[in-house]
Structures are given as C-alpha cells and as structure tokens.
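Batch manifest, entry 17 of 40.
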Amino acid sequence: MGGPDGVRGRFEAPPKPWAAGHRGVDLAAPAGTDVRSAAPGVVTYAGTVAGRPVVTVTHQGSGTPPLRTTYLPVTGTVPVGTAVAAGQVVGRLAPGTGHCADGCLHWGLLRGGRYLDPLALFGAGAARLLPLGGG
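Output type: structure tokens
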C-alpha cells in the first residue's frame, strides 16, 4: 500500500532508456477523481497510448526542450491546445489498468525523451549528492 503522503509508487530511473524502471510517481486516488495540472501550461495531448487514456501538459518557459507532465489513466476534459493554470482540472481519473488497477494516478515528468522525478517540481524528489571536486 501507499505511504501516509498518498504516494504508492516512487520514481525509479531506468539505467538505460529501454530498460525497466518506474517512469513516474503513483498517487493514490479512486476512479472519477478530478486530475489537475501540476503547473501552468498547454494541453498538448489527450488520447490513448497503449490502450490507456493519457493527458500531457507542456510547460512553456521551463527550459529547452520544455518540461511535460503526463497523467494516466486520465480521460481529458479540456481540448488539446487549451492553456491551463496550475491546479486547473485537465481530466478525470479513469478506472485503472496495469500496476494502477486498484486506483491510482500515474504522474510523469519529461524533458525531451528523458524521464525525471515529478516530485522534484515540489522539491520532494530524491536527493542526489555529487562527489567533492566535481568528479
């Protein structure tokens, strides 16, 4: 089960782009829950990927290439091209499939084709320490 913060599965970067890993965070929620954009942006995709409904929001001004957040299984409620504010509803959680079969939102964050920990948007991602001397 999930922790007290509602996080049921944490981000685990794959060692290679094609390798196993968990490319997002699973948040406990029942089907029908409103899903809100984590930051301001534009809905750039609302459709089906691998049989699951997905909504993607692209966050302009977040660097090059811009950050994108993904939400699944989520049925979009606003048209592609719609500008959204942080916290604005972008869809509703659909009945789960796969590892979210018992009710959760899989929330992802990408820059280009690279997956990142979405909790880092809120300063809650995993800490990474670099060796002294920059090596």
